[in-house]
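Deliverable D2.4 — example input (C-alpha cells):
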C-alpha cells in the first residue's frame, strides 16, 4: 500500500491541510490558495501556521480542506503523473481515516454496552 496523506479530524469532520495537498501534488502552495478562490470549492477554513524558519518570520496561511473541497480542488489540477498518484493517495487517505474513525466508534459502543451489562448485574466499581 502506498503511503497515505495525513487526514485530521477537527470540528467533528475530516480535513486535509492545503500545504500537504500542494506537496503531494508537487505544486506550489500559492497555486492551491489561488484555486481555493474558485466558487465551486466553497468557503475554506483558513488557519495560520507557525513560521517556516526557526528564527521566526511571517506566519503561513493555509486552508483546512474538507473531503468534498479537496476532491473538487483535485479536478482543477492538471493530470501529471505525480498528480494522478497524489489524487489516488488523497482519496485512499480519506477512506482509510473514515474506516479508522468508524472502527473506533464501534469499539467504544461495544465497551459502553459491556460496561452497562456489568453494571446491570451488580459488577460496579
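Example output (designed residues):
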Amino acid at each position: 500500500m502506498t503511503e497515505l496523506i495525513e487526514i485530521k479530524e477537527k470540528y467533528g469532520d475530516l480535513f486535509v491541510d492545503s500545504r500537504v495537498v500542494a506537496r503531494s501534488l508537487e505544486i506550489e502552495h500559492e497555486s492551491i490558495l489561488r484555486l481555493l478562490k474558485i466558487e465551486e470549492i466553497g468557503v475554506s477554513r483558513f488557519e495560520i501556521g507557525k513560521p517556516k524558519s526557526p528564527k521566526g518570520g511571517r506566519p503561513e496561511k493555509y486552508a483546512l480542506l474538507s473531503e468534498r473541497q479537496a476532491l473538487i480542488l483535485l479536478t482543477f489540477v492538471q493530470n501529471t503523473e505525480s498528480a494522478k498518484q497524489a489524487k489516488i493517495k488523497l482519496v485512499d487517505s480519506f477512506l482509510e481515516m473514515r474506516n479508522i474513525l468508524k472502527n473506533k466508534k464501534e469499539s467504544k459502543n461495544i465497551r459502553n454496552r459491556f460496561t452497562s451489562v456489568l453494571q446491570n448485574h451488580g459488577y460496579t466499581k
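Helices lie at 18-25, 29-35, 67-75, 81-120.
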